[in-house]
Design a protein that fits this description.
Number of strands of chain A: 14
Oligomer: heterodimer
Number of helices of chain A: 10
Number of strands of chain B: 13
Helix content of chain B: 25-40%
CATH class of chain A: Alpha Beta
CATH class of chain B: Alpha Beta
Helix content of chain A: 25-40%
Radius of gyration of chain B: 16 Å
Low-confidence stretches of chain B: none
CATH topology of chain A: TIM Barrel
Shape of chain A: globular
Shape of chain B: globular
Chain lengths: 255, 203
Amino acid sequence: MAIPRVIPVLLLKNNGLVKTTQFKEPKYVGDPLNAVKIFNEKEVDELIFLDILATPENKKPPLEFLKQVAEECFMPLSYGGGIRSVDEIRDILKVGVEKVIINSHAVENPDFVKQAVERYGSSTICISIDVKKNFWGKYEIHTRAGKHNTKIDPVKFAQDMDAAGAGEIMINSIDRDGTMKGYDAELIKKITAAVGMPVIACGGAASVNDLSIAINDCGASAVAAGSMFVFHGKHRAVLISYPEQTDLDRIFNQG
Amino acid sequence: MIAIIDYGLGNLGSIKNMLKKIGAEAVITSDLEVIANAPKLILPGVGAFDNGMSNLHERGLVDLLNRKVIQEKTPILGICLGMQLFTNKSEEGALSGLGWIDAETVKFGTNDRKFPVPHMGWEYVTLKKESKLWDGMYEKNKFYFVHSYFVRCNQTSDVLLTTNYAHDYDSGFEKGNIVGVQFHPEKSHKYGMQLFRNFVNNY
């Protein structure tokens, strides 16, 4: 298998960088371009940007910002938030972003994913789903930045996206988001057992050990996290960090 | 000025960004005259093989590239699909490749869940022969890959790098002035930067 990717997820809100807890209480954590420079110096495997207001407020992708980011970054970049058309995908790729992440619009219009894959290839199209456990412990997909419960089963939907040709899928646990209580291993396992495409685990990571569990025990191909890379200590002081490559090689048994 | 050949496929801006970072002047172009005068060429590309070849033909680039690369021995670096176009042919398409390297491009034939296709992510690569492209490289060198097809060289002497994904395959070749890499140096941090530096300074 490829070296598992460890991916900081950066949430954008009105051109600022924020971090949420269970998709609520966005806390301002700094200037996104400054964060990008630091992550570039730390040689992160990949960066994901999600604009959390784009879908709820019906906004266009922040192309000028993404262009600036691409000029600073010598690693793969993904962007998600408010993508509804293949022309928007074209514009995003053109400024130097490698992959687009489709969430709400994939759930609301699965045919769009097929079109996007046909036009730009599997490796460019990443699906993301936000999942929450209901009162009875059943997993359900929520869209529109977690505001709308679709009641759709994430396993079935992930299989549909796999069949539609999506290149990978990111599974974000709303319950674990920002809590730093570890990934939802049960959820990740369910998805990796059901699909052939790479799975990115997201939501809850606090330590290198959490990353190891998602990869080695749950079968994820990549791990994403927010709080772990932007907060430090129990008071959640803002400090950007990223694990040492030697530590990652050790937990993933590489080279 | 290095010519990054624009034939309508792929993310060329990130290559130019990295060249700029290392202080090399480059231009993204499909202009035949600019390409004809360039001391070095980069052929990037993401997408389907036949698309790539027919775009080169449509722009009148095939004859020019043959003259530059084969007769004038201008150094050229192929990246991803660019590398694959240097081979004889691909399982992905019906058109002939440029045929500069005696090799074929074939599809990953794995149904193993552990090795999803496209192959996407970082890999360490193994150097198979001495090369000016590897001056000052690191002890372990990793690069970012995105591809569903890979190159199989017929002449072992052409193989520069190998990578293991389900099996070993040829992730880099070098024959005289012709160099190709399957990965994306422009997205591979200091490893890619050093590779570009070597291509710019040593060829």
